Kinesin-like protein (Dovyalis caffra), 588 residues
Amino acid sequence: MPQETNNGSMFTSPCKNLRGSKGLISSNEASYTEEIINDHELAQRKAEEAASRRYQAAEWLRQMDKGASRTLPKEPSEEEFCLALRNGLILCNVLNTVNPGAVLKVVETPILTVQSTEGAAQSAIQYFENMRNFLMAVKDMKLLTFEASDLEKGGSSSKVVDCILCLKGFYEWKQAGGIGVWRYGGLVRIVSFPKGSPSSLVGSESADESVDESESSQYEQLLEFLHLSDEVANEETKTANALAFLFDHFGLRLLQAYLKESNGIEELPLNGMVIDTLFSKVVKDFSALLVSQGTQLGLFLKKILKGDIGSLSKTEFIEAISQYLRQRTSLASSDFSKFCVCGGKKETIRQIVSNSSGHAEVIDLHQKQLEELRFHYKEMRRQVKQIQEGWDKEVGRLEHHIKDLEAASSSYHQVLEENRELYNQVQDLKGTIRVYCRVRPFLPGQSHGQSIVDYIGENGNIMIVNPLKNGKEARKVFSFNKVFGTNVTQEQIYVDTQPLVRSVLDGYNVCIFAYGQTGSGKTYTMSGPDLTSKQTWGVNYRALRDLFQISKTRGDLVKYEVGVQMIEIYNEQVRDLLVSDGSNRRYP
Ligand SMILES: Nc1ncnc2c1ncn2[C@@H]1O[C@H](COP(=O)(O)OP(=O)(O)OP(=O)(O)O)[C@@H](O)[C@H]1O
């Protein structure tokens, strides 16, 4: 034993739980103690695992054989388990259920309680016959087997448990249709199981032979491997079953879809040949699907191997595969349950695709997108409806507004008409014939002459003085509508004429003309001395300006046509002044 150093660090155990209250213990002592504890834990774990497997086997036997439920406890001890199976009756009955006729002669024995050992001793020969028949049948089926002595004291009940669980796995696979690959712990391989014929077992080696030829340690390793791969094997069996199940549904649904989609189905003679043709297409499609699935799985496995996690142990690799299968199984089953609930053609296609895990993800993605689209569509419909309602309201409001405007417009026109009538009545009241007098100032050179205008009144009177006469005769008063003096502007002259222009546009006839002797100022008043200046425009130009202005204002209501004629009346001759050919045409 090495010496302890002063600080004790060199030889102290890294396991802190080994530090007892008595102080530190040396390295060798610690390792030894640790080993004992580890061995103890390992043994305990193995015992627990063995018990769990034994309970599983017992449970299955109780389910398969009614007699077993009376003689075999639910969770039997190793001794109870061996004792209940020792007469071979339960095993033979169960085997005949799994593979009818496997044991042709089963020796019936009185029901014995598990505590009784006497009964078992009394029928030892009969028991042996049952056991021998069972073991031979199991061997013929190339399943895991054991020695009859394994059920005696000192035997290996674990081999018995393995045999029963192997039988259980085989039975479950057979119940699921016996299609595909069945394997129990990598030892027994069954590539096909045609219905109605004896099972066809193809194995790399016989289980029995392998057990016989193996050493005990090899057998232990084998069992360990069996245990490790047991879960994988079960998953694979489930997958094979699920595959068979999916194929049935896939095939039938696809067949259904083909029949529904083919035109003129009523005329199609549904004979065996047609069904065969369609079904061969279904199989082809399914095969393509499997190839695609296989490719994806291959990629997945390669990805695992090349992953960042580095090299994998076999156990880790198996666990990764199991995890993948579990994920895919749950995904497929959820899709499949949706398919079963919904049914229909679209769902048939969904079913086909959902068999492929990659496609299932795509479908899920599309499903989500479809849901989103549905949501957006609903939202858009709601918004469109909302906008439509808004527009309806707006249109209603506009209609109402237009009606108001129509009413206002109609009353406006009414008012306008009234106004027009009143206006023209005013013009009439002012006089349909109005005579104005304009006094021209002296022309240059006449400024020293004597004016005969004595007085111009506001009421339209003008008093003229005749210097050649006396008394009453010397003064005369003339009355007009209005008299304009010499200092009146062109604008002031037009103000009294302007209202008549509006009357023209209201449909009244109006005539404005100037009358007087030569040189009295007619041209000056009607045209103006200088056309370039708006201030000196005479009545004609101002009237035309207003005419166009008012007709433009009323443009949306009335369309006016304006014509101009210019004539001269001289010496009782009427001449057209706008004739351009110079003929100066005279009117008759
Ligand atoms: N109100 C006025 N203020 C200043 N000058 C005026 C006025 N009225 C007329 N005259 C001037 O008197 C002259 C004669 O006027 P005007 O030519 O208009 O007369 P008339 O009546 O047209 O003559 P006629 O009959 O011969 O054509 C012109 O030189 C004109 O400028």
User: Anything to note?
Assistant: The first helix runs from residue 27 to 64. The radius of gyration is 63 Å. The chain has a mean pLDDT of 75. The pocket of adenosine-5'-triphosphate is lined by residues 440-441, 443, 516, 518-524, 529 (CB under 6 Å).
